[in-house]
Write a structure and sequence with these properties.
globular, alpha/beta, 4 helices, 5 strands
Length: 153
């Protein structure tokens, strides 16, 4: 899945896209069916030493067709996979600044990056599991609705 195609898709649908980047070295999700939605794009990052994936993961990824892809890390090294995820977020945020970026990992080492991205007004979060993503949390009834349009002062 290439960034240029992502941008074309967003222009056509004019919806916020949720980009989900899974650290498969750290989390092996079993609930990808939750992500089989038109507003989700998924990347599963697989470490160089990971030689097997579950058939359930492969079947669920295949069901998402062009909205899901694998990224195999070619080298070993401390945080090699994490740097790949950071690169993809940067690349995608450049193409789709309205996107919401979800890292699925228990690795708290991502948190300083997330704080920096939030300071740059990039919507991003880290969740330990797919089901824990804010996308699947109910919005409290008393939460005010905020328009995406800027208000002139």
């Amino acid at each position: 899945m290439q960034a240029e195609k992502i941008n074309e898709t967003n222009k056509v649908k004019n919806r916020r896209i949720n980009y989900v980047l899974i650290d498969h070295e750290n989390v092996q999700p079993t609930d990808l069916k939750l992500l089989d939605r038109e507003d989700v794009r998924l990347w599963v990052f697989v470490g160089a030493a990971q030689t097997k994936l579950s058939s359930d993961l492969a079947i669920q990824m295949q069901a998402m067709r062009e909205r899901a892809d694998y990224v195999r890390i070619s080298g070993n090294g401390s945080n090699a996979l994490d740097f790949h995820i950071a690169f993809y977020i940067g690349q995608l945020a450049g193409v789709d600044p309205r996107g919401f970026f979800h890292i699925i990992s228990k690795d708290t080492g991502f948190d300083p990056l997330l704080q920096h991205l939030k300071a740059k007004t990039i919507l991003v979060c880290r969740s330990a599991a797919v089901g824990d993503m804010p996308l699947f949390k109910p919005v409290p009834a008393n939460t005010p609705v905020v328009s995406a349009q800027k208000v002139a002062v």
